[in-house]
Amino acid sequence: MKIIPIIFFLNIAGSVMAQQPDENKFSWSGALETYYLYDVNNPASKQLPGFVYSQPKHNQVSINYALIDAHYADSTVHANFGLITGDYPQRNYSAEPETYRHLYEANIGFQILNALWIDAGVMPSHIGLEGALTQDNMTLSHSLMAHNSPFYESGIKVSYSSAKWLFAFLLLNGWQNINDNNNNKAVGTQIQWKPTGSILLNSSTFIGDGTNLPDSLTLTRYFHDFYLTYSFTEKMSIAAAYDIGIQQRSHGADDYFTWWGTSVILKYKFTDKTSVSARGEYFSDKNQAVITTNTPDGFQTTGFSANLDYLLKSNLIIRLEAKHFSSKDDLFPGNHDNFKNETSMIISSFDIKF
Helices marked H in 262-323 — which ranges? Predict the structure, then answer.
């Protein structure tokens, strides 16, 4: 029955578009990722741990996401409406009401002045190097930092952009939530600088409600995300990121828990169709502010991965990744309802955008 609302909305969108006088202002896009993952721990649940929100199933061919997106744009107005299904939204939207669990984006924006825009609705997050759609990222799988920071957000954004700069201010419902359960809002900022065509530096912040709990239980969260990308040559590039967050220990408290994470990715293109990437990462959340482990040392995990990508066509890519995690505590499920402090896995995927 879940597919019925998707068909209903797509039919409405198609009908509305058909009535417009200038069809050139409308466009469609879509994306599909199928994947197979094998975890050497062979977890009995056939699921990766709860802190992994993308490609979570062990030893089965599955759909990470299937997306259809409608767009409208003219010189002063733009709008986007996208619906998504698959393993990624099933995990990442599990806290949302059923109504919103297939909503990838739904936003509208208009130009206030030249290069100054205001947008409102559900939007991709202003935080992080990696987006929800993995074919847009340097690696097949997301980093631990990306898994545990917002992929989407809902609110109002005012932004200004030029050839070298982007400035944005956001008023948000909270930390990755569409449905708001309290009266506490959050604010966000983003600054991007492109001094040359080969360098990009980004600084994003979040201040406000971090838990979407009722008013009497909310915890204030302060978070900063920094990343840079640099292309040494047309063939070689690097990306580095660092996140740090603090959150109240309890409602109204004056002391805070801290967590942080970092990652570095190197990519090399052998040809126009073939490339390799390698990533090293570390994530520390000893006090379990964002990742609950119920273990003595909380979440302290190191990860390494290596990627091989082959571009079959300009919009179709085959990807293969080997990845290893090691943690201070036993966090990775085994095949007898036991847990281990490390695991390795192989992931392959077919990714298409249209």
Answer: none
The confidence score (pLDDT) of residue 44 equals 93
Bridge partners (DSSP) listed for residue 318: 310, 350
What is the pTM (predicted TM-score) of this model? 0.89
In contact, 188 and 209? CB cutoff 8 Å? no
pLDDT surpassing 90 at residue 253:
no
State residue 211 phi and psi, 5-degree precision. Answer: -125, -15
Cα separation of 324 and 176, whole Å?
27
Parallel/antiparallel/unpaired status of strands 186-196 and 165-172: antiparallel
- Report the chain's mean pLDDT, rounded to a whole number: 93
When computed from its CA atoms, the radius of gyration of the chain, rounded to whole angstroms, is 21
Q: What is the pLDDT of residue 12?
A: 44
Give residue 353's Cα distance to chain centre: 17
Band (pLDDT 50/70/90 cuts) for residue 1 is very low
CA 178 vs CA 99, 155, 185: distances in Å: 10, 8, 12
Dihedral (CA of 242, 167, 67, 213) sign: positive
Q: Could you tell me which residues come within 8 angstroms of residue 263 by beta carbon, excluding any fewer than 6 positions away?
A: 129, 143, 144, 145, 240, 241, 279, 280, 281, 282
Q: Long-range CB contacts (< 8 A, 24+ apart) of 162-169?
A: 162/115, 163/194, 164/193, 164/194, 164/195, 165/191, 165/192, 165/193, 165/194, 166/190, 166/191, 166/192, 167/191, 168/126
DSSP-derived letter for residue 98 is: G
Given phi > 0 = left and psi -120 to 50 = alpha, else beta, which region is 89? alpha
Pairing of strands 256-269, 61-73: unpaired
> Rounded to an integer, what distance in angstroms lies between the CA atom of residue 227 and that of residue 266?
14
pLDDT at 55 over 50: yes
Residue 57's Cβ-count burial label (10 Å; 0-12, 13-18, 19+) is: buried
Residue 115 has pLDDT above 60, yes or no: yes
Stretch (H or E) spanning 6:
helix 3-18
Question: Using CA atoms, how far apart are residues 286 and 131, in angstroms rounded to an integer?
Answer: 26
Distance CA 152, CA 350 (A): 23
Instruction: Give the residue-averaged pLDDT of 332-345.
Output: 93
